[in-house]
């Protein structure tokens, strides 16, 4: 892949809506990928569009919302959709690349909840378009054969990821842990049954200031990762960084890099309907099975690390690989 897969970044458009994105915070994987392509240092960067196997549309949904929707925020997707559709219209008239594949070798990256809505205004235009999305919800039109699930990471200032404070498996005294806001119906149900009710399954809405979130994760065997308003959560990656087995609590989340990673080997999936059974389910996992999963969590950590420039097998590299796999399915008429 390293030698053959080349990506052309369209030059049209100007910042802040194009060619740049958020580098820190919860949507930062969007900006990190855009910046990787714009830096000119990526080994996957095509020097001419004729040598490209894929074409990157360098639009930032986060930037569009920041500059076109504020200070008077509303929830009408029209402005967002018009910006991207108009941009693709310009590209399709100026070049032959979009039309020859009907967009099947083109992709964009978005970590914002609104990312999937870019394509809803014109399903025909975007029928083949590869969407790299954090909000990878199979019940809302995410198609794993075409789209790519992007990990959601909260990248802090001056860092490229959350801290790694993992402890040895025999030094983890907490069975299960979660702390976060009551966002969405999944967490509402989680709080209904478990909020501040059990010493083994520690579920909190907000931690006291004397407790450290990441330190608690490092002391936990199983880290609960319930969906929020949307299916993705940065807690999945935070769990992996902490050496904690992620417990995915969602009914329709398509997990990142599932083409090559078997999540059943290093995580637990609990359907939303079985939230009352969390403790029974986790206590039913033998120490042998837990140790096996925890060891694999440590092995897959490298696939969720962000490096700049990207390194083989890290998060950005895995995104390229996921797009490449979908590009292999494209046949030109």
Automatic annotation (TrEMBL):
Exostosin GT47 domain mapped to chain residues: 1-283
Gene Ontology CC terms, in alphabetical order: Golgi membrane
InterPro entries named among the record's database cross-references: Exostosin, Exostosin_GT47
Cellular compartments annotated: Golgi apparatus membrane
Gene Ontology terms for molecular function: glycosyltransferase activity
Keyword Protein transport set for record: no
Protein name per the record: Exostosin GT47 domain-containing protein
